[in-house]
Every structure is written in C-alpha cells, then in structure tokens.
Amino acid sequence: MKSRIKLSFLLLTGILVCFSIKVNAQSNRNISVLSNYDVWIDTILVQMTLEEKVDMFFGIRRFSSAGIPRLESKESLVDYRWFDTKNIKPMFPGLTYTTFQYAGIQTDKAKYKSDETIKVSIDLTNSGKADADEVVQVYVHRLKSKVFWPYKELKAFERVNLKAGETKKITLEIPVKNLRYWDEAKYDWILENGAIEILVGTSSGDIRLKKQVDI
C-alpha cells in the first residue's frame, strides 16, 4: 500500500513539474532563448510517456514482483547519463572564450586488475588567443556488457589553467574498484570483467579522444 501511495505521489509530482516548465516557457515566448527551450519542451517532453518523464526527473524505474508494484533506485540514469543513453543532445552546451585541442591519449597499462588504478594521460593545448581554464573530463563506456549501464559515466575530471598557446600533459586516475556495480542477488559489489572504452572530452556531449582497455 505504501509503495502504491509513493508511486502515485511521484507520478503526480512529475506531471506538475512538466506542466510548470511548459507554462514558464509559454509565458516567455518573446524571449528567443526561452522560445527555443519551449520548442525543446514540445518535441521532447510532450512526446515522452509519463513513465519516461518520471524516470528523467526522479531517477526511478518500476518493475513488478509477484504482481506487487515496487520502486527501485536508478541513480545511474540521472542527469547527463539519461540524455546520453536516450541519445538526446543538451540544448545549451557550455561556451568558452578560446579553443582547446586534445591529443596523445595514453594509459599506463592495457589491462587492469580489480585493485589497480587506470592512469589516463593526454596533451591539452590552449589553441586560442585568450588565457582560460578547461575542465578535462574522463568517461567510461562499457563494451558488450551484460549488465545495464548508462551509455557513459563520468569517472574523473580536472580543471586546468592554460595560457594562450600553452600545452600541458594532464593525467587523471580511475580506481578500478570505482567501476563496480551493486549486485542485489549477491548483496555485494561486483566488477564486470571485459573491455571498456576510456572517453576524454570537454563534456559528455563533446568527446575528443578514445582508448580501449580491459579490466
């Protein structure tokens, strides 16, 4: 009974959130940015099912066990991970006063054990005319996984200050233990062995370099 009440509350809240966003965009059509956002609302939210809207806003998924509705956490498919997995591009990407070039991706090994750390190195160059900061982001994409994962997950990042024309070698680390998942049946953290792809870029939607390793 409590699960049904909770589900009904979340569904109602999801409807109200979607309606609020829609009304806000409608009331600001004279502003071009919000008008574009309204188009995004029309093409994305309006076409989504109610369950998909709840999934996106609250990060939950529904399933049945012996005919009893239940809720299960789905935190791994929230924010950018939801959009990447659903292949939806963000409407307003971040901007910068300069440009950056990524090159020379390397890892210290080709295969890693569960107690080791993946070290990813790249050469980052400020190829523009202004001094600026860049946030280098490292994502992991699972190849041929038998477990459900978002398309990619952020595992490391570093903010780097570069003068115009300057190049720095940046190294980021990903402990292999951070790639485990929680197995509800075994009630334990499990590392899924196999190939993964290391993705490096300026954001989840702007990947510049890739490299495959095994765990």
List the helices and strands in order. Answer: HHHEEHEEEEEEEEE
Number of domains: 2
The rounded distance between the terminal residues' Cα atoms is 43 Å
Question: What strand line-up does the widest sheet have?
Answer: 6-5-10-11
CATH homologous superfamily designation of the largest domain: Immunoglobulins
Structural class: alpha+beta
Q: Could you name the CATH topology of the largest domain? A: Immunoglobulin-like
**Strand residue content:** 35-45%
Gyration radius, in Å: 21 Å
Overview of this protein structure:
The strands form four sheets. A four-stranded antiparallel β-sheet has the order 6-5-10-11, with no helix packed on it. The chain has a three-stranded antiparallel β-sheet with strand order 3-4-7, with no helix packed on it. Strands 1-2 form a two-stranded antiparallel ribbon. Helix content is 25%, strand content 39%. The longest helix is centred in the N-terminal third of the chain and has 25 residues, at 2-26. Helix 1 packs antiparallel against helix 2 (32-45) and helix 1 (2-26) packs across helix 3 (50-58). It folds into two domains: 2-73, no CATH class; 100-214, Sandwich (Immunoglobulin-like). The model is unreliable at 21-34 and 60-75 (pLDDT under 50). A hairpin with a 2-residue loop joins strand 10 (195-203) and strand 11 (206-214). The chain is of the alpha+beta class.
Give a quick summary of the entry.
This protein has 215 residues and is an alpha+beta fold. Helices cover 25% and strands 39% of the residues. The protein has 2 domains: 2-73, no CATH class; 100-214, Immunoglobulin-like (Sandwich), CATH 2.60.40.10.
